[in-house]
Amino acid sequence: MTARIERPLSPHMQVYRWTLTMALSIVHRATGIALYVGTLLLAWWLIAAASGSAAAYSNVQAFTGSIIGRLIVFGYTWALMHHMLSGIRHFVWDLGFGFKANERETLTWAALIGGVVLTILIWIIAYAIGGVR
Questions:
Q1: What Cα–Cα distance (Å) separates residue 83 from each residue in 12, 18, 24, 66, 80?
Q2: What is the pLDDT of residue 13?
């Protein structure tokens, strides 16, 4: 009889060496979940605006104007930008491109850096045109 080799039945996280690509694929899923939660805030704002009630709208504005509210909206903006760019990265892979090691790394870094840069750029523009008070 041959000796039995003890190994996992399926790949486990402990087996693989963590890579940026792996981490950002997980972050892509997490940002998808965060977008659901942030969309509730967006819906609250839209409903308050559509209701015609100044009190309802001022409640939303008071929340989003607070420090915690601005952090949440900033995080929502980043989640949206990151999820979009990461989705483009996955789409490129679905088309059959970008599988070489250097291409994978380039796409991954582009999604990571691009999400941060776009978020900051959006907020700079929003403050510059007076959309954020």
A1: 25, 20, 10, 25, 5
A2: 63
117 CB-near residues (< 8 Å, 6+ apart): none
Three-state DSSP class for 91? helix
Q: Which residues, at least 6 apart from 12, have a Cβ–Cβ distance to it below 8 Å?
A: none
> At a CB cut-off of 8 Å and minimum separation 6, what does 61 contact?
none
Give the tokens for residue 37: 């939660």
Burial of 73 (0-12, 13-18, 19+ CB in 10 A): buried
CB 98 within 8 A of CB 107: yes
Task: Check whether 7 has a pLDDT greater than 90.
Answer: no
Residue-level pLDDT at 10? 65
Is residue 69 within 8 A of residue 34, CB to CB? The reply is no
Instruction: Please tell me the predicted confidence (pLDDT) of residue 132.
Output: 65
Phi and psi torsions of 99, nearest 5°: -95, -10
- Prediction pTM value: 0.83
The per-residue pLDDT of the chain, averaged, comes to: 91
pLDDT of residue 63: 96
